[in-house]
Specification:
Blueprint lengths: L10 H16 L4 H16 L28 H4 L3 H17 L1
Helix pairs in contact: 1-2
């Protein structure tokens, strides 16, 4: 099997790679580089292709790349003024008090 052969990847893995690549392209990364990064992410998540004949078929791998969310979190909140954040916090407290 030549390098880069995708025959052992499931349809779901291919859809996942397409979706990831799309996100990179939206952020201005070249199509080739986006594709490379997308497949690297799928490999990191799933440990390679999951179809018959592959050593890692069917094993859950914990999806490590999916846990990166939140690293850049808080940016929207940081851009808001103190009074806006305070008002939001007070509103949330009122909502919780109603229950």
């Amino acid at each position: 099997m030549p390098r880069g052969d995708k025959s052992k990847y499931t349809d779901k893995q291919e859809r996942k790679a397409d979706h990831i690549a799309e996100g990179y392209e939206k952020r201005g990364i070249s199509e080739k580089e986006a594709e490379r990064r997308a497949w690297a992410t799928v490999n990191k998540d799933d440990g390679g292709g999951k179809k018959e004949g592959g050593s890692g078929r069917g094993k859950h791998t914990g999806n490590p790349a999916a846990h990166k969310g939140g690293r850049k979190g808080g940016a929207a909140s940081a851009n808001r003024s103190a009074s806006e954040r305070s008002a939001s916090a007070k509103k949330a407290a009122r909502t919780r008090a109603h229950q």
